[in-house]
From TrEMBL:
UniProt GO MF annotations: oxidoreductase activity
FAD-binding FR-type domain residues: 10-135
Pfam family, one: FAD_binding_9
PROSITE patterns assigned: FAD_FR
Name assigned to this protein: NADPH-dependent ferric siderophore reductase
Length: 284
């Protein structure tokens, strides 16, 4: 009988809150620092993400925190809850990690924590992961998403070369949620206002109406799963783009918390891909 291989322990980093800033009515920026981030490093991807662990550290918690041991020895209801967030910025010299949180009042977990965070508070995290950065060899870039994708989109825009061409579509609730993204003269930012409608109501028609420039595009489309599915179909089926030119993923799904979405995401993606392949076959 083959022996079960032990999964290597994942490093749990612990950041200390240095600053908290309200960027817009519904976006809170938290900067973490401290010695607990000494082993943290990214691969430079603009969509780098971390898994935040809740609840935050308590004084009686053992350090270093052994997540695998907790999961092995405690009942599931006592395991930390994880929430996935994009690394807005990471400065390896000062070891400061910037995270932007969407805050919807008293609902949710991570956003509520961020809105009430104070300097000196601590937060544990795993990671980072990630795999997308704008391809410098692309002729132009397409970036589209909602508030959940805004940190990754902003990081990607800052990563572009000064002469890069990009069309950036960001759907937010209203004009008060817009942020400065920067970028060179070839970066065209389109802010779209949802105004109480379902996510993607303004975004999908705007991307569909874009007159695609000539040349090879590198596309980044992330956010609520339903509109991501629609835009993926637009790019793959109607524009015939190969998967290699796309970074497309549903960060969340309307009506599901992260735990419920992650549990069903694989099946959802399989269904989307099957529909997509069938549509491509009909067009061939």
């Amino acid at each position: 009988m083959a022996q079960r291989q032990e999964r290597p322990a994942r490093t749990v980093h612990t950041g200390r809150v240095e600053t908290v800033e309200r960027l817009t009515p519904h976006m809170v920026r938290v900067v973490l620092g401290g010695e607990g981030l000494a082993a943290f490093a990214t691969d430079g991807h603009t969509d780098s993400y971390v898994k935040l662990l809740f609840p935050p550290p308590a004084p009686q918690d053992p350090e270093p925190f052994d997540l695998e041991r907790v999961r092995a020895e405690r009942p599931r209801q006592e395991w930390p809850v994880t929430r996935t967030y994009t690394v807005r910025a990471w400065d390896p010299r000062s070891r400061r990690l910037t995270l932007d949180f969407v805050h919807h009042g008293g609902t949710g977990l991570a956003g509520v924590w961020a809105a009430g965070a104070k300097p000196g508070d601590r937060l544990r995290l795993l990671g980072p992961g990630g795999g997308y950065s704008p391809d410098p060899g692309a002729d132009w870039h397409l970036m589209a998403g909602d508030e959940s994708a805004l940190p990754a989109i902003a990081a990607a825009v800052q990563h572009l070369s000064p002469d890069a061409t990009a069309h950036v579509f960001v759907e937010v609730e209203g004009p008060e949620e817009e942020q400065g993204l920067g970028g060179g003269e070839g970066v065209h930012v389109h802010w779209l206002h949802r105004a109480g409608r379902v996510p993607g109501s303004a975004l999908v028609p705007a991307v569909r109406a874009l007159d695609f420039p000539q040349g090879r595009v590198h596309a980044f489309v992330h956010g609520e799963a339903a509109f991501v599915r629609d835009l993926r179909r637009l790019l793959r089926v109607e524009h015939g783009l190969p998967k290699e030119q796309l970074s497309v993923s549903g960060y969340w799904r309307l009506g599901r918390d992260e735990d419920g979405w992650q549990a069903s995401k694989g099946e959802w993606n399989q269904g989307v891909e099957a529909e997509e392949e069938a549509a491509l076959a009909r067009r061939s």
